[in-house]
Amino acid sequence: MRKVLVTGGTTFVSKYVTEYFVNAGFEVYVINRNTKSQVKGAILIESDRHNLGSKLKDIFFDVVADMTAYNALDIIDLLSSLGSFGQYIMLSSSAVYPEYGAQPFLEESLKGENKFWGAYGKDKIEAENALLDIVSDAYILRPPYLYGAMNNVYREAFVFDCAIENRKFYLPKDGSMKLQFFHIKDLCRLMEIIINDKPEDHILNVGNPETVSIKEWVTKCYESIGKEPTFVEVHSQIEQRSYFCFYDYEYYLDVKRQTKIYPQTMSLDEGLKDAAKWYLESSSEVNRKPYIEYVDANLITDYPTRSGSNE
After folding, report:
1. DSSP letter (8 states) at residue 286
2. pLDDT one-digit tens code per residue, 137-160
3. What CA–CA distance (Å, rounded) separates 27 from 248?
4. Which of 70, 64, 207, 66 is nearest to 147 (CA)?
5. Which residue, 126, 119, 117, 115, is CA-closest to 71?
């Protein structure tokens, strides 16, 4: 039985990855501080990744799935604690590409600090560089917005709440800004292909090949709850993140490398239905933001009747 080491294992991406590989028949170890519930079937190594000591030295891991490396020290400390291992897969981010770069972003595109992501993207760049300095054949995955079951970030869950409460949806401008997504199950399936097939390309932008407008995305979120939205367009200088779950920033990743080895991603309709099903059963696991409260306090008075909906 192949051994996989997953960093984290208790929240969204790392939790889903852990459960996926347990169900796929791998022997899965997780590193976390044991402050949250563990995935059934995973083997816990209770520790901070920076204080592992010799706990990993005598275990050979076929795969290290590093889902929680945010800076260079995260990489360096974990690698110094490992004994021998096979493959190393790091989850990076599309935040490594600066907002002023030419789009669509290619894997070879300029990397630099993005004003929307700040230190997060800069630290991810440094983590990538530290990893490649030590493990030159590591795999690095750069997704856009991840979504799906176990997502504790208040994105699709925010729209689900609006749908459940039969609220009008306050849409940034005309809702034409584009977003790009990748379902968490697609991420896991891709990782399994990398583990089994060891593809030639080691740095991969990952995501759905197509983008979707905000308006289309919100509509699909409502439909996954069995509802249809009515839109109110917000045309003002109000910071978009005050009342909406994404920055006013449109970007697009070129995912041709991914599609060579994983050509068929989950449709957004199917993925959002999966996310909605999980949310309706597990809403307490999501970290809510006060978007609805902001709308009620600041926008309903200013936009009482303006509707840019499906009429």
Report:
1. S
2. 999 999 999 999 999 999 999 999
3. 42
4. 207
5. 126
